[in-house]
Amino acid sequence: MTYAKVKISANLLLESGLHIGGSSAYAAIGAVDSPVIKDPVTHLPIIPGSSLKGKIRALLSKTDYNHNTSSDLGNDSDEISRLFGNSKNADYKLGRLVFRDAFLTNKEDLDAKGVHSYTEVKFENTIDRITAEANPRQIERAIRTSEFGFEVIYEITDKSIDQVSEDVAILRDGIRLLEMDYLGGSGSRGYGKVAFKDLKAETVYGDYDAAAISALLGEEV
Amino acid sequence: MKHSYRQFQMDVVALAPIHIGSGEKYTSREFIYENKNYYFPDMGKFYQEMIRLGLAEKYERFLIEPKNKKKRLNDFLYQNGIQMRNFGGYVLEETGFEKTESTRGTLNDISKFIRDGLGQPYVPGSSLKGAIRTILMNTKWKNKDFVDRKGRKPKEYKSAIPWGQKKGQALNDIFHDIRVSDSQPLENDNLTIVQKWDYSLTPKKDKVTPIPLYRESLKPFTRLQFTITTTSDKAYELISELATYASQFYQEYKSFFLNEKSKEEYIQDNIQYPIYLGGGSGVWTKTVMRQANGIVQKRYVKMKTKMVGKGVVKLTKAPQFNEDKRLIKNQDSLYEMGKSYFTIKEIE
Q1: Backbone angles phi, psi at B163, to 5 degrees
Q2: Residues B14 and B218 sit within 8 Å (Cβ to Cβ)
Q3: Residue B148's closest chain A neighbor by CA?
Q4: pLDDT of residue B1
Q5: At B16, is the pLDDT very low, low, confident or very high (cuts 50, 70, 90)?
Q6: Do residues B37 and B91 lie in contact, with contact meaning Cβ atoms separated by under 8 Å?
Q7: What is the pLDDT of residues B247-291, one digit of tens each?
Q8: Please, which residues have CB within 8 angstroms of residue B179's CB and are 6 or more apart in sequence?
Q9: Which of B83, B99, B105, B126 has the fewest CB atoms below 10 angstroms from its CB?
Q10: Any CB–CB contact under 8 A between B124 and chain A?
């Protein structure tokens, strides 16, 4: 019986400020009205696994890997469902991928660069194109050049062993798509440009040679 | 893998000072003027040094006491014989146009340029995108009615161009399909301090007036690089034709405002395709001008500064930063605030 867990990891580098919204339940007047989500212990910005998983799935669902044109995720193709899960499909109730929250990894480097804070506050405004009145807002962003530890656990079983290279290729394409798209909010105006550096795979449980997966991940599209 | 993402490289070059504000200002207590330079210390570091020198309390008193109201950071340093300048921060060279000879360096507030988390100035994608949107709304969609007259006062009808999700309908949001990146990070060397000058041309008056408003701005010739990604065919088409729309917009702006309100010598020639970026470029570069005309003016009726006709031309003074290339046609060093040009090409 084959049962293995392969850890696929990378350095997720922010090439522009990133805004993944947190709760704005309490915002003082004049203070940031849309804060980013942070680790409650360290107060450092994080990238929740749900944001990564959701965005990558949404991007992949627009490609040829999927044929689902309805709004119901339950109709997603087998290729997508088996990786991300499908609550309506008995075979793929649980997906093969586990996305981890990504934490800030280069705090020291940022400190050395002399940053004051790991998030910046960007002032923006809406100009009414008829009255020319400005309506300002403040948005918090995790700063450019921050790095986060991206980590996905991929599960290999007897059932999936023949599909490994296909699965990894899909995930890799999802990652490439994400680099062309944006992560988090307000991406159409520059936020959330990300790059994945040093994508690699290693077997963390069971007996499986992850070298082929690593090679596949490093391959340019 | 198939996708419909197509990318453009858009380069914007400043033809005049460009100011993108961060929403904050330096007060007269936050910079030091000396040796023809403006030094903007890192005020956190400055305060720490004051603590180290045992001057923290004195500094606090300096800030609070009413009799010091007119005093600047220079005065505090002088009074206490502080020679050191290792407070971090950065230096901008004066241009010589800030004030008259005798009042040099006595600026009050200076609007800050936007900076990223590493402290480097940059131009956000949101600023460029807003400018692109204004161009498109004045050309491509100029026949649409953008005025919402339902409320007490007319305002922009924001749904004239569909955006956002509508329940039960496919997403139709053309400006979500146009993604404008932030510019590359810039250096402090790209910045200079410029003052606002208003030019008013009325039957009775023909003069340029300095306004006590100073802005950290990009120097002319600064090149900004942006990537625009389009994710639908319609968006791709719009961006492919952006250059044509920009030229149309400029023609419209010129006949609507510049020709009427400005002296020929204050209008700068275009290079490539014109675009106005950032603060201080005037309302007509920010609105759907023909539809806003009349409504904008009403806002100022009750204020001290009434807007006469279409208002004044917004200019600024800056030196010639390049000996070989003259960007202006007047002898008074007056530039059109925010004026720039762009080139755009698709990248494979």
Answers
A1: -155, 165
A2: yes
A3: A130
A4: 46
A5: very high
A6: yes
A7: 999 999 999 888 888 888 888 888 899 999 988 888 889 988 888
A8: A182, A187, A188, A189, A190, B125, B228, B229, B230, B231
A9: B83
A10: yes
Question: Is B339:B16 a contact under the CB 8 Å cutoff?
Answer: yes
B81 in contact with A at a CB cutoff of 8 Å? no
Nearest to A149, CA basis, from A101, A217, A213: A101
Burial (CB count within 10 angstroms: exposed 0-12, middle 13-18, buried 19+), residue B334: buried
Cβ contacts of A190 on chain B, cutoff 8 Å? 124-126, 129, 179-182
Closest alpha carbon to A130 in B331, B299, B19? B299
Beta carbons of B125 and A190 less than 8 Å apart? yes
ipTM above threshold 0.85: no
> Is A67 in contact with A77 (CB distance < 8 Å)?
yes
Distance from CA of B101 to the nearest CA of A (A): 35
Q: Which two tokens stand for residue A59?
A: 């991007």
- Cross-strand pairs, B345: B9
Neighbours of B35 (CB within 10 A): 9
Tally of CB atoms within 10 A around A136: 10
Out of A104-118, B50-64, B323-337, pick the least confident: B323-337
pTM above 0.95, yes or no: no
pLDDT at B264: 83
